[in-house]
Amino acid sequence: MDSTARRIAAMAVMLMMLMMIAVVAAQAAPAGAKAKPSPSRATTAASSLPSKPPLGAVILFDGKNLDNWRHPWGEPATWQVRDGATTTGRGNIISERTFTDAYIHVEFREPYVPEARGQERGNSGVYIQGRYEIQVLDSYGFKAPGKGDCGAIYDQFAPLVNACKPPLEWQTYDIIFRAARVDPSGKVTERARITLLQNGMVIHNNVETLGPTAGGNANVGEPGPLLLQAHGSNVQYRNIWLVPLPLKGSDTYAPQ
User: Fold this and answer.
1) What is the DSSP string of 83-108?
2) Beta-bridge partner residues of 22
3) Pairing verdict, β 102-109 and 170-178
4) What is the pLDDT of residue 50?
């Protein structure tokens, strides 16, 4: 048998095997069964919510109380806590804990307000260090979200993609934050950088901020708190924690 004939014979055997596999699979499937649609990346990433804090994480809100929070004017936080979540109420609240570089996890849920438009659709915000706002809004379904939509570094950078889930579903922000660097005189030598994943999808990739959001604390060389914004909407938050990060790694080649 020449090489051409051998190739044809091998192809015929392979085809017969594939046909047999197809027949067996068809017989094994229940009558009328339909293939399950594969879940979206956002659904897959958020399927294990709430996310368990890693070892060494600083728990800012565990769903029990707001003892670790206060209003900016000093009064204890007065937002309602119920069923493991807090709902935005009177005035912003800030964490007692301050930080510089950090990995921050926040879970939030948008209200369903179909009659609302624009910035009235479940508006809130997560301010890193009380300075840099990550917008919280119902922006589900927009093809190209803007600088004021959910996941935006507010009024500076729009998210790379729309990773939003529908309102009434819990969503996640996972933020890797590198604080601004300043010299001894307080002059900024490096602006703050933010990497942000929403529902497991990268929506900001090591973005250099333009500075604090309007109204944010301008003392960028100092540690700052996490701020949750009250903006007249019933946005819910839960399971908020952070992991402080070292400002730099080792300067040596060998381990120490």
Assistant:
1) TTEEE--SS-EEEEEEESSEEEEEEE
2) none
3) antiparallel
4) 85
180-211 pLDDT, tens digit each: 999 999 999 999 999 999 999 999 999 999 99
**Tokens at 154, concatenated:** 């507010």
The domain spans of the chain are 68-244
The CATH superfamily holding the domain 68-244 is: Exo-inulinase; domain 1 (2.60.120.560)
Total-model pTM: 0.81
pLDDT band with cut points at 50, 70 and 90 for residue 48: low
Share of the chain above pLDDT 90, in %: 73
Q: What is the DSSP string of the chain?
A: --HHHHHHHHHHHHHHHHHHHHHHHHHHSPTT--PPPPPPHHHHHTTTPSPPPPTTPEEEE-SS--TTEE-TTSPBP--EEETTEEE--SS-EEEEEEESSEEEEEEEE----TT--GGGSS-EEEEETTTEEEEE---TT-SS--TTSTT-BTTTB--SS--PPPTTSEEEEEEEEE--EE-TTS-EEE--EEEEEETTEEEEEEEEP-SSPTTS---TTS-EEEEE---SS--EEEEEEEEE--SS--SSSS--
